[in-house]
Write a structure and sequence with these properties.
Elements (H helix, E strand, L loop, with lengths): L4 E12 L3 H12 L4 E5 L15 E2 L6 H15 L1 H5 L10 E2 L3 E4 L6 H11 L4 E4 H7 L29 E5 L3 E3 L2 H14 L3 E4 L3 E7 L2 E7 L3 E10 L5 H7 L10 E11 L7 H4 L2 E4 L4 E6 L3 E6 L21 H14 L11 E9 L5 E3 L6 E5 L9 H16 L10 E3 L6 E3 L20
Parallel strand pairs: 1-2, 1-12, 2-9, 5-14, 12-19
Antiparallel strand pairs: 3-8, 4-8, 5-7, 6-7, 10-11, 11-12, 13-16, 13-17, 14-15, 15-16, 18-19, 20-21
Helix pairs in contact: 1-6, 1-10, 2-4, 2-10
């Protein structure tokens, strides 16, 4: 075709996306001897939706395999330098081991999550109401369920019912700089031979006889590889379409606009010293300490919050008054002395959401085309585990394993448990056990 430029280099695998999962997949494939190239439309690793991740490292998910995947990730965040295999003393992203408080609520099935915790071996403490009050003295622990928006006439109704209690997981917390953590993995992957290309967009996935041949960029450059991996975050559905696989994936993905807000703490409270990462479905929120001794808060997608699915290249990137009030005012019900600034502060970005809010980690009907999609919002923490799992799926399938006839059983190296990758299969039925929210 006239005008096309051919790269001199040929790669074993092209990874579309250089977010945290894309970089971890490059790292793991490179360690297996694959020559990889990540291509990203942004200017650097982690500059897409990963960069605005809240970086929460927590273990409560709605499925046993989701809990196991998340808990396995604890080893990586507690041993980040060891995972990266970087011999020098360069700075690396910091994991803030605050522990996580999971408020028991009618919104989530605590007995089921407790069962998963016990099966997986998650360390946890059950806190009664008196313990919560002692641990978090600034809180009002009445139940405000169901979550509402401030324009609801019952938003300010007094509650006479108290919460049952909470669960505390001491090994969890958050990473305050997701971009930096992603660049750590990029550096680690480069030491194994991985290459990265930025400010470039893929416009075509070339294929012949139902086999991937490579990609074409918007500027006409052709790059050859027999493996292409879609790790493109909120653009995943577009790449799926580009690969001709939209009809073959029974589980679909789409881009969901999402806001996260930052507020100052009550006078005398120092979140960075005394705060926890907290999931509070009773008020429809999660919150954690943020740099500058602030509090970061986001929505856990209660029914009252509208869901705005958007074009990932054309959406409102400004904080809206409506969602700011919904999230911050709900937090103020839990923390009555919370100062509410006149000027909203926060960030807006996108989730890559699947039909059941559980990710797809799988091959496809197109030979050589693989997918790690539907991940935004709740999979940042699992990226190192997912990178290794994807590398094993790819290697096994390329060696002839029939992953559709019998989806791979993946052994988690640090927990020693096995998870069923069928839970993340592209042709699964919608999982009725899902929270259908960012909780996963």
């Amino acid at each position: 075709m006239k005008g096309l430029l051919n790269m001199d280099k040929k790669y074993d695998a092209i990874i579309i996306g250089a977010g945290i999962i894309g970089c971890c997949t490059a790292f793991e494939l490179s360690k297996k001897g694959y020559k990889t190239l990540n291509i990203d439309k942004e200017s650097g690793a982690g500059e897409g939706s990963t960069g605005n991740s809240c970086g929460n490292i927590r273990f409560y998910y709605s499925t046993r395999d989701g809990v196991a995947l998340a808990y396995e990730s604890a080893w990586y965040w507690h041993n980040w330098r060891k995972y990266l295999e970087l011999d020098d003393e360069r700075d690396i992203a910091q994991f803030h081991n605050t522990g996580s408080v999971f408020i028991k609520s009618q919104a989530l099935d605590w007995p089921k999550i407790k069962k998963h915790f016990d099966e997986v071996g998650v360390k946890y403490e059950e806190w009664d109401l008196a313990t919560i009050k002692a641990k978090i003295p600034m809180g009002d622990f009445h139940s405000f369920y169901q979550p509402k928006t401030p324009d609801d006439p019952h938003f300010y109704d007094e509650s006479t019912e108290f919460l049952e209690g909470a669960c505390y997981t001491p090994e969890s917390g958050y990473v305050g700089d997701p971009i930096f953590s992603t660049r750590n993995v990029e550096d680690a992957a480069k030491t194994k031979g991985a290459e990265f290309m930025y400010n470039k967009r893929v416009s075509e996935i070339r294929r012949q006889d139902n086999r991937v041949q490579g990609v074409t960029l918007e500027d006409g450059t052709q790059i050859d590889a027999s493996i292409v991996i879609n790790v493109s975050g909120p653009h995943s559905f577009q790449v799926t379409e580009m690969a001709g696989q939209s009809d073959n994936n029974l589980i679909k993905t789409k881009a969901l606009r999402h806001e996260v807000h930052v507020v100052p703490p009550p006078q005398g409270f120092k979140p960075l010293e005394d705060g926890y990462h907290t999931n509070d479905a009773d008020i429809g929120a999660y919150y954690r300490p943020e740099a500058g001794n602030m509090i970061l808060t986001g929505s856990v997608d209660p029914a009252c919050d509208p869901k705005e699915f958007v074009d990932p290249d054309n959406f409102n990137r400004e904080v809206t008054t409506e969602q700011w009030k919904a999230q911050v005012y709900r937090l103020a019900r839990r923390i009555p002395e919370l100062p509410i600034p006149n000027n909203p502060m926060g960030v807006v970005d996108l989730y890559d959401v699947s039909d059941d809010w559980l990710p797809i980690y799988d091959k496809s009907d197109l030979n050589g085309y693989y997918q790690a999609i539907g991940t935004s919002g709740n999979q940042y923490k699992t990226a190192p585990v997912v990178g290794a799992m994807m590398a094993e799926i790819i290697q096994r399938v390329e060696d002839g394993y029939d992953h559709d006839a019998q989806p791979l059983k993946y052994k988690l190296p640090h927990l020693g448990l096995t998870i069923a990758t069928s839970v993340f299969h592209r042709k699964r039925k919608i999982n009725p056990n899902s929270s259908f929210s960012v909780v996963g």
